Amino acid sequence: MNLEKKAFELRKKVLDMCVRAGTGHVTSSFSCVEILATLYEVMVPNDRLVISKGHCSPLVYAILADRGVIPQEDLDGFAKDKFGVHLQYNIPGVEITAGSLGIGLGIAAGMAYAKKLDRESGTIYCLLGDGECYEGSIWEAAMFAGHHELDNLVAIVDRNRLAVTDFTENIIRLEPFIDKWKSFGWWATEIDGHSTEYINMVLNWYIPFKKPKLIVADTIKGKGIPFMENVPLWHGIAPSGEDAVKAQKLFEDEL
Amino acid sequence: MKTMRDAFFDEVFKLDAMVVTADMGAPALDKFRGTDKYLNVGIAEQNMITVASGLALSGKKVFVYAIMPFATLRCFEVIKSTICAMNLPVTIVGVGAGFSYEDSGPTHHSTEDISVMRSLPNMTILSPSSSGMASLMASIPDTPTYVRLDRETLPEIQRGSSWDVRCPGEGLDYIIPAKTVIITTGNMVHTALKTGFGVMDIYKLKPLNERLLLKHFEGIERVVTLEEHILDGGLGSIIAEFMADNGILKPLKRIGVDKYYYDYGREHLQKLCRLDVESVTKTIQDWVQPPNM
Question: Is there a single domain that holds both residue B136 and residue B196?
């Protein structure tokens, strides 16, 4: 199956799960569908993925079920008796308990450092939200990874430009975002975060520097449901009633 | 005599474990430098906790180390969400219990750490009262552990035979049995021993050895708790909760710190909050036998 089709089906699944549960971060999940769908294809057994923006959990559960790591029928228990709104480390295929923003990069850096100590192959991937980059702990970890030249660490920022209540550039400017990372000793680049082709390409790029890699993935929060795209108030909310019908109609036909 | 931290880290060095420090040194740590056992993350305590968690999630046994208020309060929520939420084998080593950092003011005094750290469900809390005891507490953790070390060199205490075999597992040492007993921890054990009352040293504050404590309580008539720590949630609260939970109706007097102090010198600070030997003795005497008005 091609990744565009996969992304379409994952969105459909996530929407159904969240509508059924009456909760879940639909828009925050929809912005990183292409990122995660591609990343799971790229990853090899020695790699690990630390998901710091743990509120994209319905998407992760849908991917894990699609890959046979967890049973498909468990998805019906999202935000009910099976899985919570935030990722938990005791779920198969999930590396850390997430939900507390800003802690994932430090953990990923610790894992990457451990790999260096043990002379072990493999890459540690870390998915960050842009909103959590306000946390000082992100920059403590960024400084650490840059100093230790952790070239086995790849962080991807889902740069959907929205935090909880407003656009990041209205709250407190994150820009010039990529320059901040570069000045912390990272190799950094910016791509279209909804292009599986670009994501795949940049993940596979060999970088001839001893630096951690940072990918700013430009995305749209709520991508795929036009009336929810780029609307701050849709953060952490599942559509209901007419909104749910309208949204689900978008995924009725096969891609 | 070794300081507590040197006694502790000399033993840690013998273990297959790493020390992650937030740029906090100790003579005993010098031999770690330049080895794979040592990682200095800089003055960034939150990152110390997250990096240690990543190492622990990669199979490493980790000790993190910083001045007490920063190792605990500064990154409390990070400890909760990482080490505790994932039940990781990480030992948090804080140095500077109570007024240890006597000349550094309230930012460096650690008078809330017990209250705060004991609220974490799966956290073991160790509070040694001498360097020898601190060295016995240096072992590979299976679960989240917090060790509170005094900055001063606390001398060894005359104890019964084989207590060192029972430490830290047993959790407490009933040094001087009596009808009126001061239950205390860390540096205040030494103060209590000079008052003439009974003394019990609780060196594992969590989980409390309730079984042994219940046995000892049979012969106790009056209970005093003594701590260089705020009363809300500290050792006095631990004992009061233990008594309430077990239906023990005995007189209890809690002695501890009441507020922040901006003065200097540990002796002076202890006098100010009536934690010196003379004040503690008088407080207990007046409580046991109120002076005629």
Answer: no
The reply to whether B236 and B110 lie within a common domain is no
Residue A103 to residue A136: CA distance in whole angstroms: 10
Residue B54 is assigned to a structural domain of this protein: yes
The b/e string for B91-127 (b: 16+ C-beta within 10 A; e otherwise) is bbbbbbbbbbbbeeeeebbbbbbbbbbbebeebbbbb
Number of cross-chain residue pairs from A and B with Cβ atoms under 8 Å apart: 88
**Global model pTM greater than 0.90:** yes
The whole-angstrom separation of Cα B173 and Cα B193 is 13
**Best of A53, A96, A153 to mutate (most B CBs within 10 Å, chain B):** A96
Residue B166 lies in a domain: no
pLDDT 10s digits, A99-135? 999 999 999 999 999 999 999 999 999 999 999 999 9
Q: Which residues of chain B make contact with A112, given a CB cutoff of 8 A?
A: 54
* Any domain includes B158: no
State whether residue A172 sits within 8 Å of chain B by CB: no
CB contact under 8 A, B60 and A114: yes
Does the pLDDT of residue A255 top 70, yes or no? Answer: no
- Number of domains within chain B: 2
Question: For B70-95, what is each residue's pLDDT tens digit?
Answer: 999 999 999 999 999 999 999 999 99
Closest by CA position to A245, among listed A227, A229, A230 = A227
Contact yes or no for A163/A134 (Cβ under 8 A): yes
Expressed as residue numbers, the domain containing B216 is 172-288
Q: Has residue B164 been placed in a domain?
A: no
The enclosing H or E element of B206 equals: strand B204-206
A253 has a pLDDT exceeding 90: no
- Residues in chain B with CB shorter than 8 Å from the CB of A97 are 81-82, 85-86
Residues 33-72 of B with CB under 8 A from A: 36, 39, 41-42, 44, 46-47, 49-60
Please check whether residue A114 touches B, CB under 8 A.
Answer: yes
B54/A108 CB distance under 8 A: yes
